[in-house]
Amino acid sequence: MIKFLATLLFCVCTSVSAWAGNMETVTLFDKQSHPDTSILMGANTEQKAKYFPDGKMEGNVLAFLVKIKGREILFDTGLPDGRIAADLKKNGRAAADVKTILLTHLHRDHYGGLVDASGKAAFPNATVYVSRAERAYWVEEKKDVNVIHALAQYAGRVHEFGPGDKVMPGVKALDTSGHTPGHVSFLLKNGRERLLILGDLIHFPRIQLPLPEVAVRYDVDPDKAVQVRKRIFDYACENKIPVAGMHIPFPGTLKLKKTGTGYEAY
């Protein structure tokens, strides 16, 4: 049974939680779904039944607003019909207050909230940062009309970066490609404080922590996704860095430790 950090002061919906010092994070809840286990890859029938006896899983869509080094950054924006903007309002921020958006990748449940119901920019004053490889894949190779439209609403305010780049003060992009060709995670540092924003390195912790070799059907490169999950989780364990993931059950944050061939939250 996954245990969440007892010291994090989250409520059932959303609230500001201070990790320590000057780094603060707000978990923004977008949507919950209950997909069946058929989307899992690399898990046999017995393993699926062990972790999901009723055949249903909990799928969440989250985003994170983090204040670091005096700047508030929105990590991902949820779905186009989601409630990220509404949750921001509950926390005293209007969509127009958001100045910086960092995207982990360009799947619909991560970039979709860039546009509002009218198809225009949901965050009219924001600059959007996206991985160079990710943008090239969806815009140039796949020619995804929805991605193209969403980014076009921020014309002149879309900036590309590469793995290893210091995207913002205290924020470094990590190459975690596999789930998508340009997927990135973000390592946040503020003095001694650290946090890993994972993006989609994990979708269903109940099975993917003890069995990290389990992939999901929407991994573009499942084998690579598994390899990078293990690499980043090993790094988080060795360095005792808390992690935040967009599909981890609310509030979306964990501390990990290595257990045999898998991992465990504590």
Blueprint of the fold:
Elements lengths: L15 E5 L2 E11 L6 E2 L3 H7 L7 E10 L2 E5 L8 H7 L9 E3 L5 H4 L15 E5 H10 L3 H8 L5 E4 L4 E3 L2 E5 L8 E7 L2 E7 L5 H4 L6 E2 L5 H18 L3 E3 L7 E2 L1 E4 L2 E4 L1
Parallel strand pairs: 5-6, 6-7, 7-8, 12-14
Antiparallel strand pairs: 1-2, 2-4, 3-13, 4-5, 9-10, 10-11, 11-12, 14-15, 16-17
Give me the number of helical elements: 7
Mean pLDDT: 92
Q: Which strand order do you get reading across the main beta sheet?
A: 1-2-4-5-6-7-8
Instruction: Provide the β-strand percentage band.
Output: 25-35%
Number of strands: 17
The end-to-end span amounts to 10 Å
**How helix-rich are the residues, as a percent range?**
10-25%
Structural class: alpha+beta
Radius of gyration, rounded?
Answer: 17 Å
From N to C, what is the helix and strand string?
A: EEEHEEHEHEHHEEEEEHEHEEEE
Major sheet characteristics: 7 strands, mixed
